[in-house]
Amino acid sequence: MTTAAAARWRAARLLASPHRLGFLAAATVMAGSALGWLLVLQAGGSLVAGTALPAGAAHALVFVFGFMPLFFAGFVFTVGPRWLGLAVRDADAAARTRALLAPVLLYATAWLAWWPLPAWLPEAAAAHAPAALLALAAAAWTAIVRQMHRLLRASPPRDSPHLRLVVRACDLGAAALWVAALAVAGGSVPCVVASAQAGLWLFCGGVFATASHRMLPLDAMAAQPALERRFPLWQLLLVGGTLALQALDVVVAAAWSAPAPAAVSALLAAVTAATALWLALYQPDIPQNTGAMLHAGLVWLAAAFGLQAAAHACAATGDAGLSHALGQAALHALALGWMGSTMLAMVSRVAGAFGGQARAADGIAWALFALVQVAALARVAAALGPAATGLLTTIAGTAWTAAAVGWLLVYGRWLGRAPERPPHLGT
Questions:
Q1: CB-CB contact of 341 with 299 (8 Å)
Q2: CA-to-CA distance for 22 and 18, rounded, in angstroms?
Q3: Contact 155, 119 (CB under 8 A)
Q4: Distance CA 17, CA 132 (A)
Q5: 15-51 pLDDT tens trace
Q6: Dihedral sign for Cα atoms in the order 351, 409, 71, 218
Q7: What's the angle, vertex CA 307, arms to CA 176 and CA 234, rounded to 5?
Q8: Which of 88, 129, 298, 306 has CA atoms 20 to 30 A from the CA of 219?
């Protein structure tokens, strides 16, 4: 193949590997949903008349369930076979990608239609659009998760706790999506918000925590993860347990209006915040590449747990207003700060490495990373400073949209090109 032919973008190459298909679909949904949310903000935060779902709840659903699961799918079916010790052959990768094509396209279509579809439908039909789209997304994600289970069953008898934990988190994500679809259909906004927050803490948080522990410092090909060699598995269990507790707190509060004991939640969140900060700072000789982004993401995780601990402490003392503000800040530190930073690092590294350009866009990657930091800082500040909420939320939405569109334009181009050299994910 000539250099010019290899550099040419071709849609057929998206079927060569699961990460190509999954990442491009995810990036398209991420950019589209970010643009849609920015337009909603410019319109004053209102949705189309006839849609009973509040804009904030709609935004939470698309951020938690819209694009991140598609990144997870591309990641699991590309890196997962290596974690399981399976033979990595081009024909097998292509077969897995073809099996994913229909559910991935259905899932992406549901979320790409999330903001514009109600505007195109008559008012009576627009009211039912969110529930129908959520049901379509839930069915598609269930089909993808079923293929993850088939991947696990096809592996040789080798312990792979990280991949199994990721798949279990994806199971919970499917359940949360179905609950959200039923809640939207039934008009229960508190249940919708609870399902989105539970999905954020337990589903997305579980996948990110497990993948970070397995990959740090981005040695996904290694027989044993570097972080597990240096620190025992209990660190992952502590972070995962705290994420699960936050999700349980949300679900219990929504179902019975009686959250878990705030003092216990505050203590565990504080301990986990200290652990995450220690993991982030106790990393000598961090290379100035996407590995450093992962460690910066751990700082955001520590901040999220710290803010959540403070929120629980305020709830224990009866200051409901400050507790709510701190809780919102914690959610956005978790979602934009930790998950945004970690996702950018991981998917950029995988896309670049399998595209044969692991270091070709360091400057661009850092510019996109900086935009994510601006978005996270502005949104956390908006939660803590209500006087400037409108301006800061707009800044956050603009920065996140620029990062999302930028990633699609830069890395989406790589996903349709032939790799320049064999993939390598070492540091």
A1: no
A2: 6
A3: no
A4: 30
A5: 888 999 999 999 999 999 999 999 888 876 555 444 5
A6: positive
A7: 70
A8: 306
- What is the C-alpha separation between 386 and 102, in angstroms, rounded? 44
pLDDT tens profile 215-265: 765 444 344 455 555 555 666 676 777 777 777 777 766 655 555 566 666
Distance, CA of 41 to CA of 379 (rounded, Å): 13
**Cα(219)–Cα(235) distance, integer angstroms:** 18
Contacts 24+ apart (CB under 8 A), 361-367: 361/410, 361/411, 362/288, 362/289, 364/406, 364/410, 365/290, 365/293, 367/406
Contacts of 85 (CB under 8 A, 6+ apart): 155, 156, 158, 160
223: left (phi over 0), alpha (psi -120 to 50) or beta: alpha
Of 287, 282, 291, 285, nearest to 352 (Cα)? 291
C-alpha to C-alpha distance for 357 and 289, rounded to whole angstroms: 13
Q: What is the pTM of this model?
A: 0.87
CA-wise closest residue to 383 among 319, 326, 307, 315: 326
CA gap 111, 71 in Å, rounded: 14
Answer yes or no: are the C-beta atoms of 6 and 357 closer than 8 Å. Answer: no
Q: Which of 57, 50, 246 is nearest to 134 (CA)?
A: 57
53: left (phi over 0), alpha (psi -120 to 50) or beta: beta
Give Cα 2 to chain centroid, integer Å: 37
Helix, strand, coil percentages, rounded to 5, for the chain: 80, 0, 20
- Position of tokens 């996948």? 207
Residue 76 CA: distances (Å) to CA of 164, 256, 263, 402, 414: 11, 36, 37, 27, 19
Distance CA(308)–CA(47), nearest Å, equals 30
Q: Which amino acid is at 259?
A: P
CA 55/CA 393 separation, integer angstroms:
14
Helix crossing, 389-415 with 18-42: angle to 10°?
A: 150
